[in-house]
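The material for today's practical consists of a large collection of protein records. An example says more than a description, so a record of this kind follows:
***
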Amino acid sequence: MKPVELRENVWWLANRSDSLLEVNVYLLCYPHEKGQANLLVDPGPPEILTCLQKGTVPIIGGLENIHGVLINHQDPDVSTNAAYIQKLNPKCMTVASEDTWRLIHFLGLKASLFKAVESYRNYRASMPGGHRLHFVPSPFCHFRGAMMYYDERSRILFSGDLFGGLSYTPDLYATSASWEGIKTFHQLYMPSRDALRLAVSRIRNLDPQPEIIAPQHGSLIQGDLLKDFIDRMYNLDVGLDLLIAGEKEENYLGAVNEILDELEKEESADALAKGIAALNQDRSFTSIMTFAGTRVTGFKVDPATAIKSLLAHLREHGDLGLESLVNLVALKVLIGRNIPISDILQQASGAELPDYFE
């Protein structure tokens, strides 16, 4: 694709390669009385270097006229071309966070031409022509030193990997269907919802508000989708959240089956089988958990709620021997697995737990 002028003096470069992980590079031009300052945002990997050269020739005369590169984080698909551009223009500056610089300097970039975003007052740089560039930290999205760049003149936020997405279409601009690719990308690469919420809150606090979010991967977000995608991102479980949720369910699944194993060993196998059989006949309950024989294979609601219902059902439908064992066995298993007892036993038993269990 040819370069696309997103706003006056702001260009999208790179190409569309039918890859699931498209790379976007952006050119910012700041005309002034003595000439023009040209900045490249996230210059990308070597594979697109020729494409960048061809794209910049008709606009600024080529990559040798790039005066500075802005880098979100150190990944090779983001930063590698910075070293080649500095070879073409030995005076080209590198702007990034200090954390990012500790890694990208190994590309061979000159320390004397590095400017840390932390050195700018209020994280803002005055650009030629009276414009301002706002540096917006987005820590752990997905790197500690990740830095977004907000061009207040064009109201475009260059967000790096944040709001990036897998591309199921070559379209440059996002549609409502783009969310699935964005969601998948973030669940794979972002560490936690807390990190996303911090970054999203900083975007919401920008004044004036961005009119375009331009990520390093995927499609650009604008119009009514901006608020929608920002709100969705704020509430998205990713990375560690998904792992913890999975481990929590596995722990509860192990607990309920351990309880059932213990009850079966206590010469209550027949009563347990009858209780489970009666449970499976209750259509209202089959929507809460799934069984294979007398073993639970999955939860369809909150695991604590499901186990609480199961234990109450066993007490109600089992014989006296089973009823007397349910709370005792459950108590032992839940404590052993560090599962809160009050979430499961208090309502089910109808009796108050001692204070030391609260």
The two ends are 63 Å apart (CA to CA). Residues 239-281 form the longest helix (43 residues). The first strand starts at residue 4 and ends at 7.
